[in-house]
Amino acid sequence: MEKFDIIVVGASTTGAWFARQMAKRGHSVLVIEKNEKENVSREYDIFHMPKKEMERSGLEIPSADEKDFGFTFDGGPMLSPYGNYPKKNVPAGIIGLHKHDYIMRMNKYAEDEGAKIIFGATFVDFVKDEWGKVCGAKYKTAEGEFEAEAKLVADCSGIPAVARTKMPDDSTVENYKLTPEDIFYVVIYYVVYDSPDVDPEALHASFLNYKAVWSAPSGNPRGAILGIGGNYSYAYAEEIFKQWQKNVPWPRYTVEKAERGMTPYRRSVYSFVDNGFIAMGDAGCMTKPTCGEGCTSSLVQGQIAVDVIDELLKAGKPLTRDNMWPINKKYMEAQGIAFDSMRPLLKGVVSMSFDEAEYLFKKDVIFSTKILGGGGEDLELTPADIAQLVAGIGGAVVKGKLKPATVKKIVTGLLQSMEVTNLYKQYPETAEGYWKWKEKADALWEKIGPMSDICDQEVVKRLGIK
């Protein structure tokens, strides 16, 4: 049986990055990837990453003459349901990349540092020691089934979370499987505008009130990517896109091709670590609350994990639940609180009618640069912010622009957002306090419910989803 310090399951963004970082620090790494090399990360051609976040994570930016480079652009504003009242939303300096080619670059860097990558290798199960603790992985290739020993198994397999979902029920890492309610089904249309007079760059924008509709560059100077994300199914997402088409004036275009993919859309797992195991990336459900993007946001946790695990390995300490617990605590402080506290507020906000949202966009209430500007990453509402928000909502009710039932949903979302913040700030310092904290968190998220609760019920019924 081969022995490694770390086995990584999955060779896309998070897996390739983590493998490289750990190998670079002198640790032996095996990566097993279920797809053959030519099929890795083929769900989309183009994907976007903010330059600032790439630099923070040590991701190289290709030069313009390299095949994985697409283009650069500045992010567009958030617009109202009818395409008005722009609010600055995303930072300047976004890189468009050809995903498969860029992931191949990341894999090569990992191999250059000494990581071993096996493509066409499917994770089967854990190898466990006599006490039932993870100490390696079983995997299968066309040549047969194999076992490898390791001090740590890192699940970077994305939505299937093929390793995390095999963790026992008494693990501090939750083993739930994502359901259609917990997933954004994303459809991307590569379009070319019919008129040569259209400036696609002037149309870059996103529309929160459809959950996720956006226009972004495609690499074609006369075209764009029009994207939509929705819970339950691709069919549901496409129905919501039709609503957007009816409500927002848009230049005529021709669809050249369409792509489909998925991203998690739920709160992250409470704990990423257990004895000999860590969940990372989409396998741990770390996605931005305003859009579901997770490529670079997952690397916030990744960098914390690299630092903690590297220090433990170099000190000769075992990768136990207790020793790796700081990864959980530091992630909560760095990003987890901001991301997950934003979700109930967004649920309340997106539940309003388009006409109500249009008015609040106009008045800069809720739909403001303060709340939307960082995509939820650095949001912390002060008492003054909350007082101003409440005053704006009250004024809308007095003028008949906001229904009392809508106000109730917004206020509920705001209060639940504050509850999440307060509870997550009390995240246990050690694994010993996890189970009591988890009981409180479970009760709170049961009360909050999933974003899919506010899906258009007429569309849901027509599609036979429920």
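^ that was protein a. below is b, sequence first then the tokens
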Amino acid sequence: MARTTRPLSDTEIKKARPKDKEYNLADGGGLQLRVRPSGAKLWLFNYSRPYTKKRANLSLGSYPDVTLSSARKEAADARELLAKDIDPQEHRAEAIMSEKAELENTFEFVAAKWMEVKRTQVTQDYGDDIWRSLENHLFKELGKRPIRKIKAPMVIDALTPIAAKGNLETIKRLCQRINEVMVYATNVGFIDANPLAGIKEAFSSPKKKHMFTLKPEELPELMKAIHSASIKKVTRCLIEWQLHTMVRPSEAAGARWEEIDWDEKLWNIPGERMKKKKPHSVPLSTQMLEAVDL
């Protein structure tokens, strides 16, 4: 006949006195109270590990911080895991690691990981501009929050003061960038889904403003004005260079002598200085070749 364990009572636990050697008081179902010579009383759940069947103890805390009823509930939860062939110790370790990872994987940390990838797709200056916008407008409110805790209402609260100032273009860019961070976080497994996909709809769209243009017949007057303007020669040459080559300002300002192919009359811009990271060749007019050869 199997031996029946009589459940412990609070009175029995309180009266348990330390001995020269530690000893256990059994409550049944694997739950034990270990009484140490120091007088400390610790709850343990003794069980057989799934598959290996080796005996193991799961610490459930100390008495009286963990009451008898709480210890019994913890033991019952452990037995439920064992019924599914889940080791309670391994389950606890995984939960601790998951919680630690959640605290470490903050919005700023994940944004930095995303930025490492983004920088391979954009120029250095543009990458710096993206990161600076996140630092200036998002990290103060959201940077230290776990990425899994980032929800639409808190992001809207962070962006609302910017929108209130009428900086709708800034809002548009920030919504785009924060969504790129969250899509990256989803793809690498930091979060299960992007909760900010429609966040831009919370703000008004910026009104498009078309830039002023010149008619072709007005170009001679512009060139004459630039030529006679009271500006440094290098500035005038840069303006004329950009007008003739039709490249972005950063590309024009970053031109190098070694990029000029005098024989083929080409300006070969390396991929690392282009927005799309692809090399680009610009035909040079006679006027431009004469200008740079001054």
